[in-house]
Amino acid sequence: MRLQSVVTVFCITVSSRFQANAQVNVTQEHNNPSRNGLYVDAAFTPSAAANLTRDLNFDGMISGNVYAQPLYIEGAPNGPMIIAVTESNNVYALNATTGTVVWQRNVGVPVPLSRLGCGNIDPVGITSTPVVDLASRALFVDAFTTPDGGVTKKHLIFSLNVDTGATNAGWPIDVNTAAHYNNLMFDSAVQEDRGALALVGGRVYVAYSAYVGDCGNYHGWVIGVESNNPSNVNAWATTAIGGGIWGHGGVASDGTNMFVVTGNTFNTGGNWMGGEAIIRLQAGPLWSGQPTDYWAPTNWLSLDSGDTDLGGVSATVIDVPGATPSQLVLALGKDRNAYLVNRNNLGGVTAPVAQASVSGTTLRGTSAVTYHTSQGSYFAFHDDGNAVTAYKITATNPPGIVSAWSMGQSGRGSPWVTTTDGTNNAIVWVAGVQGDQRLHGYNADTGAIVYAGGGANELMTGTRQWNTGIVARGRIYFAADNKVYAFRLPTATPTPTPTATATATSTSTPTPTPAPSPTPTATITPTATPTPGQITLTARGYKVRGRHQVDLAWSGATSSNVEIYRNGTRIATVPNIPGFYTDSPGGPRHATYTYQVCNAGTQTCSNQVTVTF
Question: What does pTM read for this prediction?
């Protein structure tokens, strides 16, 4: 049935109350589904960053080893919180100002390394970074547990109330019993969850590898659980044994599709069966098996034979304005190469769009970052050889990869990036995990040192490989064994600027038949006329194949990038030009979405527009 609606949208100016109360939230690994690691905070000028100090009054005490990035959540009854998880299967909410415990949960006994066939983490509990759904105030986390000292081993996916720690109804999910793909059954005893959880279109995605040593008949798995209906579980796995998804970032997304990078497979007989590849998954996860939805280098079999994982670093989604193609996905392999592939058509077993040798040593376990400045588009990473390195992606046809800078820096952490407005004053940050155990900041265009690690008070202990920090309201938070550290800029009042991220433009999923014409099914709540000079926003809601879609159009924005907010939560940062954006919040149930557009890095925002399905 086709529903028609007459839509009239009037506009009002944004109230100062909304501007003052705009939330800052870090809900996931690297601050964004694209895994770009970008934070917009106007307080992080180079001069301020150079004088970063540790907040010695921040308690931050927790129990257990930590490989996961912390999260920052506002809107709780007791104020802003830091979420931290440990290998002891402890989940903490800490007061973001004092570091004292707001609530704490233990979600099960972790598995001792002695009860596993191989590995390098002891015990194994919560390894990966959780994800938060702000709309439902749900915290999703994967925990490796045992009820009997390690004889029985289970991956359990929990949904906890982020404000109280209580387990939500219908959870946890026992992945052993819930997940299967074709003839494969999930076996927790040989599957490790290193990669961060993702939340896309109302589904929670968890990626799995093996334990270090490749013991057992493991596969690369991606499990998808509907956040509001945990009995709805889908899965994808590599056909061959092996093909683990190892990188710290886990599942990346452009807002519609999911991307993972797999490692080496075994006993393929020379037939490609899912390993050494970038895989594009549709919602579910579902995988077409067509060349449009996977890419593997032509020497994949050689990489397999040498245990030289293409998936040394997790996938990162990036847009490069002016390049052809411009919508890309990045992989960094243990073979020391960077690969760029057209994410709209991965291409099968073929040459990539661009490839370059980018390191003198192997690349593994971490997440990369991507960012844009007035000088161009970049990606940066930390290798195994004590260096943090950046490369520029040229805006050409096809795009190229050229060296930008490299700086010696001990450890093996995943970097992150701050800018004051999305492009200016960009700083690449990294912690010297299991190295000098200090924070370091570098000019994102030149590599010049911005922050050299501080003094005696800024030294951390117990930092673990692969891990990364977060930025919120003029602070950096970093989680280590038994403690979360807080660092602050030299200012009395933390910046109120919402933390923004550069989510890449969503990629449409190819289908064998033309999609039906979108049918308007939504009503728009009218609002009053805006004050001249404000950003004006209109919206159109409709369904495509039963799924909610909302077209946004705006005028009057003055920044190069704008932030898109849905229900008070920032969902994307996109170029101001051409002035439109299509959101895919999901469905098909009844739902109400309230949208707003703001100049990036400011509190100058549009009217609010509400779309009801």
Answer: 0.80
